[in-house]
TrEMBL record:
Stated role: Catalyzes the phosphorylation of D-fructose 6-phosphate to fructose 1,6-bisphosphate by ATP, the first committing step of glycolysis.
High-level lineage: Bacteria, Pseudomonadati, Bacteroidota, Sphingobacteriia, Sphingobacteriales
Coiled-coil segments: none
Pathway stated in the Swiss-Prot or TrEMBL entry: Carbohydrate degradation; glycolysis; D-glyceraldehyde 3-phosphate and glycerone phosphate from D-glucose: step 3/4
Catalyzed reactions per annotation: beta-D-fructose 6-phosphate + ATP = beta-D-fructose 1,6-bisphosphate + ADP + H(+)
Binding annotation for ATP: 14, 75-76, 105-108
Stated name of the protein: ATP-dependent 6-phosphofructokinase
Amino acid sequence: MSKIKNIGVLTSGGDAPGMNAAIRAVVRASIYYDLQVTGILRGYEGLISGDFIEMDRKSVANIIQRGGTILKTARSDEFRTKEGRQKAYEQLKARNVDALIVIGGDGTFTGANLFTQEFDFPVVGLPGTIDNDLEGTDFTIGYDTAINTVINAVDKIRDTAESHDRLFIVEVMGRDSGLIALRSGIGVGAEAIMIPEANMGVDGLVTRLENGRKDKASKIIIVAEGDEVGGAFNVGEVLKEKFPAYDIRVSVLGHIQRGGKPSCMDRVLASRLGVAAVEGLLNGQSGEMVGLKNQEFVFTPFDHAIKHIDAKEISSVWLRLVEILSL
Ligand code: F6P
């Protein structure tokens, strides 16, 4: 029999569509197992300051379809310190919270990993980030919605690019990871994709364009914001110099990629993982993220989940695909 009677839940780091569906699943699964649920506002910031709310089945009604997070989120500097984590632990003890579910990405799990080890406090994580850059799950909550947002936006850009015979450089999110760029780039039929994991460089891009078909009306280059070249505007400057005949425009998609209604894939993933996280805690799991790999639930230790996914292997295969498909 588990000693857990009260589960705290929080969202932390960059918000991601589907976080609300995950919160709903955690709350409803906890109630199903006769547990109390405590919502913690603004991630680790609220954990430290004791910004806690009681949650019941109604507090998560009508949120499965909403983007953002009803619990709000933050990136907490104080939780990076031992003193901050000590305060957080005291707040949990004072409110009789005996376990935590944290929904976020690598920053969230780095903090959770320290916390669970220092205080021997049960914590399970849910992968909530648009970047899809965690080990231990095929997809993170929010990624599917984000890449669909990207392709919907770039399809519109394609209309104007085609009408004006233009080359567009489109910057997508992913400071440390090119996985949004890779998948959405293939989805929009991009001419080239530039990501931090592959060193194409502007020279490589120039060669690609020189060797590419000249009679194409429109060209789309997708650049991940973390690319070593330094973003879409820099790439645009170089290309304008090298190809004065091209009519070049730059478009940075920015935070629209983090908002909006979650896709059905994200809602279902979040719902399944939310229930699995509660059941995992009750079965004694801790210090791990629950993910879905090949349709199986997998618990991965935090320090392994945050090993930044190496997209190098994926990228070489996929970037070849881009080359073949853009002929
Ligand atoms: O981790 C999610 C993410 O959207 C990254 O893709 C991006 O680099 C970063 O967060 C942006 O963070 P912020 O909203 O704090 O500028």
